[in-house]
Specification:
It is built from eight helices and 14 strands. It has 277 residues and is of the alpha/beta class. Strands 10-9-11-8-12 form a five-stranded mixed beta sheet. It has a three-stranded parallel beta sheet with strand order 4-1-5, with helices on both faces. A two-stranded antiparallel ribbon has the order 2-3. Helix 1 crosses helix 7 and helix 1 runs antiparallel to helix 8. It is globular.
């Protein structure tokens, strides 16, 4: 999803980011994670425990600031709100820079402000050395996002063959790594967020970006007539939520994800945030 480098995907561009803490009231005294009760239908009961979820609020449609309301919204918000309804926990969303998430989940800093990172994170063996991942909740593919009127190339191979063309990418992501692999580092322009390089594509400052397909569809939906995807998908990857090593929240979140998949909630959220006309 955004295929993120850790610890590697509508568009609200150049907006000030704001932290959001959805309303959630603890309903019971804290209990040890993973103890199922009748109140949660056999799922683990977290006893009203606060769960601090790191989000960037700059990765539409996973987490972003709604231009109309000014509120933080997105797939990650809806998913964790639904999960905590099942697990009896209180989700608190902590706005965190991507650089901080990379440092924490890369073992370079302590996760003293959040319990789990949700920002379109790709599961890889390298990252799993430093964090514990949830089970996959979305499968994505990296694709080439360009302006809707682009005619100079039809795929990444043709793009790479023209030395004048530039790709945008966010450092610390697998999108960035793949971009360097395809066209060389000298032709990759670094941006602090996905929204910034998508805006640069629309304005003609760069020529395209390798992006997770689900995020790409979100940006296309947010900018009707401005963007398109060209060529075949380049990778196939799984996204997961990332926890500090040894976290006791992995099993409860996995149980909630399985329950949400079984009853169709995950499919409903996917349709809400990633489907386009």
């Amino acid at each position: 999803m955004k295929t993120r480098f850790l610890f590697g995907a509508l568009l609200v561009l150049s907006l000030a980011l704001a932290a959001c803490t959805p309303a959630a009231t603890p309903t019971a005294a804290p209990t040890s994670a993973g103890q199922p009760t009748a109140a949660t239908g056999g799922l683990p009961d977290l006893g009203g425990r606060e769960i601090r979820i790191a989000v960037e609020n700059a990765y539409n449609p996973f987490n972003f600031i709604d231009a109309t309301t000014g509120e933080a919204v997105g797939y990650d918000y809806d998913l964790f709100n639904a999960a905590c309804e099942r697990l009896n926990c209180a989700p608190t969303f902590v706005e965190t820079s991507w650089d901080t998430i990379v440092a924490v989940m890369g073992g370079e800093a302590e996760a003293d402000t959040f319990d789990v990172a949700a920002d379109g994170i790709t599961i890889t063996p390298e990252r799993a050395q430093h964090v514990d991942f949830s089970q996959p909740y979305i499968k994505l593919r990296q694709v080439l996002l360009v302006r809707s009127d682009e005619t100079r190339f039809n795929n990444i191979e043709e793009f790479a063959g023209d030395p004048t063309l530039l790709l945008g990418a966010q450092p610390g992501t697998t999108n960035y790594d793949l971009s360097v692999e395809k066209v060389g580092e000298e032709r990759v322009v670094a941006f602090d967020s996905y929204g910034l390089f998508v805006q640069a594509i629309i304005q003609g400052d760069i020529d395209g970006a390798l992006i997770d397909d689900v995020a790409g569809l979100g940006y296309i939906g947010a900018n009707p007539g401005a963007l398109k995807i060209v060529g075949d998908p380049l990778t196939s990857e799984d996204l997961g939520f990332a926890f500090p090593k040894g976290s006791d929240l992995v099993a409860p979140i996995n149980a909630a994800l399985s329950d949400m998949e079984a009853d169709g909630t995950l499919a409903t959220l996917y349709d809400k945030w990633f489907s386009t006309e």
